[in-house]
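Input.
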Amino acid sequence: MILPVLAYGHTTLRKKAIDITPDYPGLTTFLADLWETMYFADGVGLAAPQVGRSIRIFVIDGGEFAEKYPEAKGFKSVFINARILEERGEEWSFNEGCLSIPQIREDVLRKPEIHVSYLDENFTSHDEWLSGINARVFQHEYDHLEGILFPDRISNLRRMLLKGKLNDISKGKVDTDYKMIFPQKKR
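Output.
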């Protein structure tokens, strides 16, 4: 089932998500819904808080980047209870977008290498280093679990210049090809 995506300004996007256990109700169905929603909205990743659940789950399929960034080939997984253990390298800029903030893209600085731990959909534990675009996408989705959105990672001046557009998004004054929930939309 395709789920509605929460728009910028929704309080759930600012909450720190909680860990889950293998007995989380309806987990298999929820994961299938996350994938279906992400693909329908042409996303590369989607985090549970973006569809209204403040739990530590996100999905990524980096295949869209594989032609330009070879490390993205086959980078597709479910990430449960993920943690970033270490970051290293000199920050690099990349133009990011977000399904919760449609029609806005900004250059965001992030570290190029990260050491992460997570559980997959079978609750098998993983501990690995990610680099390049894979690290980038992971960090973006991980931020959703921490209540952080990419505008929080840009300069105050850029954020101030975007304020009107961000307010318009929260009021539903934006067109998308996917269903969204707007926190300030007038009925």
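The CA atoms of residues 1 and 30 lie 9 Å apart.
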